[in-house]
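Annex B.
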Amino acid sequence: MLLHQPTVDALIDSMTPSADEVQSRKDVLEFSEQDSLLLKELGPLLAPLESAFADSLSQHLDSHPEMAANLSNPEQLSQLKQKQQEYFKKVFAGDYGPDYIKSRLQVGVSYQQIGLEPRWYLGAYNKYLSLVLPEVMRLVGNDAERFLAYSKAITKIAMFDSELSLSAYFHADHEMLRLLAQVFESNLEAVIIADVKGRMLHVNKSVAKITGYASDALIGTPMQNLLAELEPTLYQDLWNTVIGGGQWQGEIWLKNKQGDDYLAWMNMNAVKDAAGKVTQVIAEFSDITAFKQTQEALAQRTEELANSNRELEQFAYVASHDLQEPLRMVASYTQLLARRYKDKLDQDANEFIGYAVDGATRMQALIIDLLTMSRIGTHGKQMETCETSVALERAVSNLRLAIEESGAVVTRDPMPRLDADVSQLTQLFQNLIGNGIKFRGDTSPIIHVGAEKKEGEWLFSVRDNGIGIAPDFFERIFIIFQRLHGKHEYPGTGIGLSVCKKIVERHGGRIWIESEVGKGAVFYFTLPIHHGERKHHGE
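histidine kinase: predicted C-alpha cells.
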C-alpha cells in the first residue's frame, strides 16, 4: 500500500526536525562548521567519482537476489542511479540545511514504501565509504593528519544522513501501521488474526460487538470456541483449506457469549511470508441472521404476491371469458328489441332500449380489453429476434379502415431488428397510431413512426398532429380506465395506453409522452436491443 505524493510530502513535513533538533544531532556527532568546510573542499576533488559511485552501488545491489527482485524495473534502477549521483554532489556541497535534511528523510520513506529493509540502506553507506576513503587517501598522499580530518568529516556526515533516513523509515513504518490499525479497528465486519494453530492473536471491535466477548478474553483462545455445535466438521475442513494456502468463504453457524447460535458469512485467507509459508490466518465475518430473516420474509412475500397475481389473472381471464356469454345474450336481445319495437313504443322506451344496447356494447368492449390486459404478462409469446417493420405493417393493416375513413397519412423511418414479442409489438403500434387517428383535430391525421438507436436500446416515437394533451395529464393517461374526454366525444374504454405501458415494461423499456394542447403529441418508448439488457437511467 503506497501513499500518494501529497500524503508523503505531508508525512515528511511532520517528521522534519526543528533547527534546534538538527543542531542537537550535529552536536552529538561533533559535526562542526569545520567539517562542512572540509567536505566542501573535497567536492571538486571527488567529482570524477560520481558515475563510478552510482555504478558500484548498482552492481552491489544487483548482486543480491532479494534486492534485485525489488529493483527489477530498469527505469526504477536508472532513477536510483541518478539519485545516487545527485546525493554524491549534495554530500560534498557543504550545505546541510532544511532542503538537504528533507532529501534524507525522503530516502528513508522511499525505502519503506518499496519494502526494502534498513540493512540495504546501511550496506549502501558501506559501499560509499569503501569507495571514497581510499580515494581521499590517494589525494592527500602521506599527510595522515589531513586524511584523518577528511575521514572524520565524511564519517560524521554518513552517520548524520543514516540517522535521518532510518528515523524516517521507522516513522513511515509506524504511520503505515497506525493507518492499518485504524482500518482494522473501524471495519464494520468482525476481523480476527489467528496463528497457524488457530489461536486468536488480534480481534477488532466488531468481534466483541458481535460475539459479546471482551477482546482481551478472546486473545490466545482457539477460534474454534466461537463455532456453534451445528458445525461439527465444517470448521476442520475449512481450516485445512486455509492452512494449505487457500481461501474459504461461505455461511457458517457461530455461537455468541450468551450461547445463542447465529448464522454468519465468513471469509478466511492465509497470510504468507516471502518464502510462501503460511504464518497467520485472517478471518472476516458478519452476522447475517437479520439479513437472512429479511431475505426469507421477502421470498415468502414474493411467493404470496406471485400466487395472488396468478389468482387475479385467472379471475380476470375467467370473469371476462365467462361474462361474455350472458353479455352477448343481453346485447342480442336488446338489439332485437330495438329492431322490432323501435317507434312502436313511446319515446322513453326507445331511449331506454338505446341505453341498454349502448351499455351492453361498451361492456363487451371493456371485457375484451380487460382480457387483453390480463394476458400481456402471462400469455405473451417468447421474445425472439424479429423485424419491427413487420409488426408496424401489421398494425397499419389492422387500422386500414380507420386510416381510409379519416384520410390519415402514416409514414415511418427504417425500422430496426431486435428481440421482442411480435404480436404485442403489433398491439403497441396499433394502439399508439390508433390514438393519433382517434384524437385528431380539424385536419386529416399525419402520423410518423420514428426509430433511433441509442446506447443499448432503440428509442421509438409515434408523432401525430392531433388535439394534444396538457402536461398535467401526462401520467394519468397511462392509468387503466382513466379518460380525459367523454365516451360520446371520443369512444373507448380507457385501457389502450395502459396496455401500451404494460407491453413496453414487459420488454424492459419505458414509455412517456411530450405534448401541448392543440399542437399534437409524441409518444416515446424504448426497447432494449437484446431482451434482458435493460438500460438503467438516472445513474
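The two ends are 31 Å apart (CA to CA). The CA atoms of residues 108 and 165 lie 4 Å apart. Further annotation is deferred to the next reporting cycle.
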